[in-house]
Design goal:
The chain is built from four helices and 24 strands. The chain is an alpha+beta fold. Helix content is about 25%, strand content about 35%.
Length: about 375
Amino acid sequence: MTRRGNLLLTLIVLAVLGLAGYWLYGRLAESGAGDKPPPTAPVQSSRTELRYPAGAPQLDYIRSEPARAYPEPLIEPLNGRVAYDESHTTRIASPIAGRVLRIGAEPGDRVQAGQMLLTLDAPEFAQAASDVARAESDMRQQRAALARSKLLFDGEVLSRREYEAAEADHARADADLQRARKRLANLTRGTAGAADNFRIVAPMAGVVTERRVNPGNEVRPDLPEPLFVVTDPTRVWVIIELPERLLGKVVKGQDVVVEADPFPTKALPGTMAQIGDVVDPATRRVLVRCVVSNPERLLRPEMYVRVTPIPDEHARFVRVPNSALITQGLQTYLFIEREPGVFVKRLVRLGLQARDFTFIHEGVAEGERVVVSGSLRLNAELSTVN
């Protein structure tokens, strides 16, 4: 075959392959178009309303929620930190030195008042018990000696000086016995162990939140950290560092609402129990302590929260996330889902605006479904059809 014939055959093969590829691409394009239907144009029934048929793909990008009403605060939420309620918390240390034999509670355990937390091998405890036994023996001896001295003194056999010396010895023995008993009571806190074993018990009912001791450890009274922390987790404190400029907007005893990011639908009530009397010269802030009821144990110490002070006399207004709002010039709008697939643009009057949400004074009623995601898409389509 000549060179010219080979070139012609190559061109014919390339042309056939091109036609086959074009046909296959067309079939694939038709198949893909069936999987992804084009967006459905909304039907406009008025200048502020959009209607979408059921199954319109635009509805996948729109999310609405029922409007909820809350008391409108005087100021934006303040950052706070959860802490132990020290009125319902105890930090337990050992009053004597010893070696840990047994641990009776772990973090997370609920304990009762008087329940054993720790057993120590403590020679000092045995010494305290021995001092009590010796003082009791001395007391019995001095009591008998005083009785004999009184009998002899009444019979004019013993001089007054000797009788008064016997009374003094009895008084010293009684003082030694009381001191030994108080020392033992302070160590045992109303409990007693066998032989040299000393028990540390829970002084109050609660939950063990921290344990900083292990079997075999040597403990002593001057350790920098407590061995156990027992607290009532249903009551916590929230500490706020209040900016100096906001001091005039809060008062002691004022109600607050506490919210945490892990539980966005929960709002826990509390009270401002104490407002500091000193301004930090470096931060220009004042420490504020709030007492918060935590019945579901949602708040944990060291968790960050938002605290919203609530005025004593207040009205409730709808609160919406800022993503729901559309600003056009000096006016603000949002979309209401009147029924499935039907969205109405509505003018609203704003109240307090915070970083994440805004209170609505007019334009929305509690219970109406507010579009919280996709408002800009709806506004763009409404502008297009207009």
